[in-house]
Write a structure and sequence with these properties.
Elements: E1 2-5, H1 11-24, H2 32-41, H3 44-50, E2 55-61, E3 64-73, E4 80-88, H4 97-105, H5 109-112, E5 116-121, H6 126-130, E6 135-136, E7 149-154
Helix pairs in contact: 1-2, 1-3
Length: about 160
């Protein structure tokens, strides 16, 4: 497996990867209607647009994209960053792919310059992020209006 920067020509495959992962893995924790709204939002065009202000990565197994993740500034701040759209194909989950993505994101300049990193964590991924030292923001372990936990990590 090899990680590299996202390129616009990856957008369709990444969008499909996100859809498959949500419909297979996240469906255990969320209603299909909510997931389909998120899938409809994360179009190839939107992924390309977002890559203009955040650093996005893809994890490949040969030519196949099997994972993705992004990091960007938290509301334009220099000392805070946000993690976004971290997904691993269901058939590669539990095999170290997610760890590789997190390690790449935590070596990115947006991570290294930040004193605080936040992530909107799905119910499905909560335990995964906690393994990397992320914990509930302000100690609040409740879902927000988008049905995510707000997690943070200080450096």
């Amino acid at each position: 497996m090899e990680i590299r920067k996202f390129a616009p020509e990856d957008a369709q495959a990444v969008s499909e990867l996100i859809a498959v992962t949500m419909r297979t893995t996240n469906i255990k924790d969320y209603p299909a209607e909510l997931l389909e709204q998120d899938i409809a939002y994360l179009t190839p065009e939107r992924l390309i647009e977002r890559s203009g202000w955040m650093h996005s990565y893809v994890l490949c197994d040969g030519e196949q994209i099997i994972g993705c993740g992004s990091i960007g500034p938290y509301w334009g701040k220099e000392d805070e960053s946000n993690l976004f759209t971290i997904f691993v194909r269901p058939d590669f989950q539990g095999k170290g792919a997610g760890r590789q993505i997190m390690e790449a994101l935590e070596q990115d300049e947006f991570f290294l310059r930040a004193r605080r990193i936040e992530i909107p964590a799905s119910i499905t991924a909560l335990g995964f992020y906690k393994k990397f030292g992320y914990d509930h923001k302000d100690g609040i372990a409740e879902l927000d209006e988008e049905q995510h936990y707000k997690l943070e990590k200080f450096r």
